[in-house]
Amino acid sequence: MRLKDRVAIVVGAGQSPGEGMGNGRATALTFAREGAKVLCVDHNLGSAEETVDMIKKSQGTAVAFKADVTKESDIKGFVADAHKRWGRIDILHNNVGVSISGGDAELLEITEENFDRCVAINLKSCILACKHVIPIMREQKSGAIVNISSMAVITTYPYVAYKATKAAMVSFTEQLAYQNAQYGIRANVILPGLMNTPMAVDTRAREFKKTRAQVEAERDAQVPLRKKMGTGWDVANAALFLASDEASFITGVTLPVDGGASVRRG
Amino acid sequence: MKRLDGKTALITGASSGIGRAIAHKFAEEGATLLLMDVTETVREGGEPTHEMLKVPFFQGDVSSEVDAEEAVRRAAEPTGRLDILVNDAVFNVGGKLADTRLDDWNRTMAVNLTGVFLMCRAAIHQMQRQVIHNEVRGRIVNISSQHGMIAAPEAAAYGASKAGVVYLTRQVAVDYAKEGIVCNAVAPGKILTGKTGRAVEQRWLDYSHARTPLPRLGRSEDVANAALFLASDEATFITGENLMVDGGWMAG
């Protein structure tokens, strides 16, 4: 097992309504399968509990934790809970993020309120989770942080808040990696491309009044590799690699998991 | 279930250093291997890699069209497939541009860039004849370098050749994505391979330590782990990427 006895926090371990497997749930299941104890944090406790039930069915160890990641007190709460419960924190996986489901829009349409909400959910949550986990990891002289940004950082994307916050995560991760390398802490960022997840596909089907199959077909067609979107497992596998000791000399990198979309031009 | 069970892999530059570590890792994970190198002598010393692993060896030069074709033919012989090509063979003499002799420049380009071209071409021809397995028809992992993205101090030809490898990686990825051929690169930072000479001159070690944020320099195994990830079924939605294994060097 590649994460035997590690303690992991997966922020955003539940998922949006819809079909299939989200990135956060797939990652929590993968970490647990590889032997980690996982604190499954989500604003939707029921969804986090579903993830935990799936882990327990496979004899894994996990606990669900309800948190509003836009509040620092809630973030302190889940970090303290994992630390108290299991004595250390080896892995922090920041997976929360919203775009259209947070009211993101094109520049001339975005409201101040929705912009602030997207920034709080996508960027502030990641930075404050790191703020509270880093002292513990420094004390341990080890730790791995995996942030989930988006391919939208590299390729064109219609809405402003998502693009800007996800780009900021990349810069922040580099700073985090550089400033904490001396403590043996690693930080890397994954850029998922077009994924066949409930948040990406079902949210758009609802928002744009299309069928799931229509949204799937439109997105599949844009992916160079096999003309098919990726899955939550693709992100989970990349996160597992980056969180494990196999990547112990890898820090500060940006890893697209996007079926070649970001290297295609035109 | 091992992570490369049922896979056939060809590794160039497999006798020493990073190539040797990749061969070791892939063998551990169940791959059927053919190792290729111009020599079986291990630079850092020890039993020849192919003897240690009890796998076939093809003595050949990646810059030779004939050898590249022959290596792929032999690699695919036992199973009828070539699932993974790892291009690790490399040549480096060092030197600032104005001090670089034309034959050194040519040899560096021939091994580091033309070699990758020839090996990829031969491998793609083979891969195009095989069926898709677990969503992928075949995989190529090129060992590039952080040099080529940032300047390689006093190694003009090497840096230029490695920049070319990163480019070729993207080109192959995009041109063959539809056919299910995946191509990625791993960019090592300062890796202590056991190689002597210029690689471990004190001034280069000092430079590397100063530039590497993590408290240690790299090991061949660090690169082998990254190559394994990209060669395995865990990475089926990643293509065209250049994954840095550099202890945070590029994040600084």
What do these coordinates show?
The complex is a heterodimer of chains A (266) and B (252). By secondary structure, chain A is of the alpha/beta class. Chain A has one domain (7-195, 231-254): Rossmann fold, CATH 3.40.50. Helices cover 45% and strands 15% of the residues of chain A. Chain A is built from eight helices and seven strands; from the N terminus they run βαβαβαβαβαβαααβ. Chain A has a seven-stranded parallel sheet with strand order 3-2-1-4-5-6-7, sandwiched between helices. In chain A, helix 1 (23-33) crosses helix 8 (232-243), helix 3 (72-86) runs parallel beside helix 4 and helix 6 crosses helix 7 (212-221). The model of chain A has no long low-confidence stretch (mean pLDDT 96). With 252 residues, chain B is of the alpha/beta class. The radius of gyration of chain B is 17 Å and the shape is globular. Chain B has a single domain (8-247), classed as 3-Layer(aba) Sandwich (Rossmann fold). Chain B has a seven-stranded parallel sheet with strand order 3-2-1-4-5-6-9, with helices on both faces. A two-stranded parallel sheet of chain B has the order 7-8. At the A-B interface, helix 5, helix 8 and strand 7 of A face helix 5, strand 8, helix 7 and strand 9 of B.
List keywords for this structure.
heterodimer, A: 266 residues, alpha/beta, Rossmann fold, 7-stranded parallel beta sheet, 45% helix, 15% strand, globular, B: 252 residues, two-stranded parallel ribbon
What's the SSE blueprint?
The complex is a heterodimer of chains A (266) and B (252).
Chain A: E1 7-11, H1 23-33, E2 37-42, H2 45-57, E3 61-66, H3 72-86, E4 91-94, H4 112-140, E5 143-148, H5 160-180, E6 185-192, H6 198-207, H7 212-221, H8 232-243, E7 254-257
Parallel strand pairs in A: 1-2, 1-4, 2-3, 4-5, 5-6, 6-7
Chain B: E1 8-12, H1 17-28, E2 32-37, H2 49-53, E3 57-59, H3 65-76, E4 84-87, H4 102-128, E5 138-143, H5 156-176, E6 181-188, E7 191-192, H6 202-211, E8 218-219, H7 220-231, E9 242-245
Parallel strand pairs in B: 1-2, 1-4, 2-3, 4-5, 5-6, 6-9, 7-8
Helix pairs in contact in B: 1-7, 3-4, 4-5
